[in-house]
Structure to design on (582 residues):
């Protein structure tokens, strides 16, 4: 995504500029009545992310496409078209981005309408600090304190509900707000409601193919990160339907963190052969983590992804790919396993939290869990109100809507933000037209992944000839019902039962091992066996640390947590130490 910094405090601005490593090329720097601004380029793909004239400028980070144009060409068009209406630009732009425009003595800062680009800020009437890296902002911003509730959410849920971050006083900008400066005053501007759902009667797949056809010639070597599952196949189908022939990227790992299977690779190769596409295998096997603290200075909070994986970093640097997309947001096109197995047709927001949202049994090790739960329920209720959903009488269709708006838009964006530091990236399935359209679809309409399968059938039916390998299960396309059916219904029922028991501290890990045995999944069993000593290692490291204390560590060992969760906790410790070094 490169990096963006805006500061009213010149001393803090200078500190931020100084701690951003030289591998990010400083592409623009300017000062004015509003303060100071600087942008930096990507690590691998050369970018010109500024348009500057005598009377103003437009700068951008991430990936922003305006009528097929990128970089300075796009920013020139953006600057010329901007009349003060942020929504008008968001409607036209494609991508995952943050943009700042100085025009007519007013500065406006905004992100894409789905908020998939990370941008962090502190704001009052006369001062602002804005940075695309939470880690770097945390190193400079003082005083700094931990938001323990947000940290526990991020650690166990991979998501923070709302605009909070793990640092008190620092928030994350969403796609429904813009930050502006005018006549000496900073303000947070609420943007008008936006509905980009397709018109009734039009096919979403054809609308998406038409929209993405505008980027057909934008990138030299586009790619899709592939598995054998449903979501990445839909992303591939949309690009092929738009006339784009992407390279298929498969990364092979050897741990619970990467969770890759050879069946995924076999499916990827079969899919490539249908359209004569190239397959590129990336090494994502576990690597040394001794340089994690140093990597924070480069990648910020994204350094912890896949447990800080140097092999994956090398793969990003060594590829000739200049654009990559992923299958994230694909869950919108099908019912999640949790809601599919849920036995209540209507429920409250409290039941949603307890039965569906809460992951694992960590409530027993977090002393402030009661207040934590109440705070998240308040946030969820507020989101329901904003969406016009009755929080006291939720339906399964409401769950799908909420799952997209409050969970997917925070949990599914990490990888594209990480990739944007190297190259261009946005989530084709996370485009606002896609999310708004799917939010109108009910639970029954998503059974058997019908919207996803129908879209693939309409655009690239040959992709359905290759069996799916989804969530460690083989699935086949039923041409009559346009739905996916699992080869083994026995395994389906076992997995649905396990879903209900996943909050058990001891039973779920035991049952998961049995499930892998039934599947004859030697790779997963090997990774589970390798995980035990790693788990003990990180437990010992956590017990000896005393920096972060939101969790009762004496009881932490009672939970059969995967080592990757404990590793992430350990990495939070290191990140907190590094931020406090200033």
């Amino acid at each position: 995504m490169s990096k963006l910094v805006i500061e009213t405090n010149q001393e803090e601005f200078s500190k931020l500029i100084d701690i951003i490593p030289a591998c990010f090329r400083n592409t623009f720097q300017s000062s004015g009545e509003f303060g100071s601004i600087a942008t930096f380029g990507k690590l691998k793909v050369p970018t010109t992310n500024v348009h500057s004239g005598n009377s103003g400028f437009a700068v951008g980070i991430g990936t922003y496409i305006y009528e097929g144009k990128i970089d300075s060409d796009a920013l020139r068009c953006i600057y010329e078209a901007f009349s003060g209406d942020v929504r008008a630009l968001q409607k036209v732009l494609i991508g995952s981005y943050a943009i700042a425009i100085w025009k007519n003595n007013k500065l406006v800062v905004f992100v894409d309408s789905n908020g998939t680009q990370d941008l962090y800020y502190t704001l009052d009437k006369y001062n602002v600090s804005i940075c695309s890296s939470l880690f770097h902002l945390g190193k400079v911003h003082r005083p700094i304190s931990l938001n323990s509730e947000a940290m526990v959410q991020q650690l166990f849920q991979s998501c923070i509900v709302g605009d909070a971050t793990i640092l008190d006083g620092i928030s994350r900008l969403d796609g429904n707000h813009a930050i502006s400066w005018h006549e000496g005053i900073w303000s947070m501007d609420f943007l008008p409601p936006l509905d980009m759902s397709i018109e009734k009667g039009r096919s979403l797949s054809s609308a998406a193919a038409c929209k993405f056809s505008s980027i057909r010639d934008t990138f030299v070597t586009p790619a899709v990160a592939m598995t054998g599952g449903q979501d990445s196949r839909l992303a591939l189908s949309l690009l092929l339907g738009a006339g784009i022939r992407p390279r298929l990227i498969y990364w092979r790992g050897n741990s619970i963190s990467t969770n890759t299977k050879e069946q995924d690779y076999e499916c990827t190769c079969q899919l490539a052969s249908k359209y004569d596409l190239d397959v590129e295998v990336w090494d994502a096997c576990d690597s040394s983590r001794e340089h994690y603290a140093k990597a924070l200075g480069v990648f910020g909070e994204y350094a912890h992804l896949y447990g800080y994986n140097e092999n994956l970093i090398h793969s990003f640097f060594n590829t000739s790919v200049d654009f990559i997309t992923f299958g994230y947001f694909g869950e919108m096109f099908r019912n999640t396993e949790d809601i599919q197995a849920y036995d209540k047709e209507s429920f409250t927001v409290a039941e949603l939290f307890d039965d569906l949202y809460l992951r694992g049994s960590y409530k027993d090790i977090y002393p402030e869990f009661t207040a934590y739960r109440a705070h998240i329920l308040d946030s969820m209720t507020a989101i329901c109100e904003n969406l016009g959903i009755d929080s006291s009488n939720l339906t399964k269709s409401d769950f799908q809507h909420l799952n997209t708006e409050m969970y997917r838009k925070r949990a599914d964006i990490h990888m594209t933000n990480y990739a944007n530091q190297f190259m261009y990236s946005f989530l084709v399935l996370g485009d606002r037209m896609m999310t708004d359209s799917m939010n109108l679809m009910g639970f029954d309409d998503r059974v058997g992944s019908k919207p996803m399968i129908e879209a693939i059938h309409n655009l690239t039916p040959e992709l359905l000839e290759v069996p799916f390998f989804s969530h460690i299960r083989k699935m086949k396309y039923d041409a009559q019902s346009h739905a996916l059916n699992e080869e083994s219904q026995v395994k389906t029922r076992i997995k649905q039962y396990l879903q209900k028991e996943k909050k058990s501290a001891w039973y779920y890990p035991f049952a998961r091992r049995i499930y892998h045995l039934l599947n004859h999944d030697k790779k997963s069993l090997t990774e589970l066996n390798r995980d035990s000593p790693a788990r003990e290692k990180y437990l010992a490291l956590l017990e000896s640390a005393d920096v972060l204390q939101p969790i009762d560590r004496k009881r932490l060992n009672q939970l059969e947590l995967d080592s990757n969760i404990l590793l992430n906790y350990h990495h939070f410790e290191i990140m907190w130490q590094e931020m406090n070094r200033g």
About this structure: The two ends are 24 Å apart (CA to CA). The CA atoms of residues 247 and 277 lie 6 Å apart. The chain has a mean pLDDT of 89. The first strand starts at residue 3 and ends at 7.
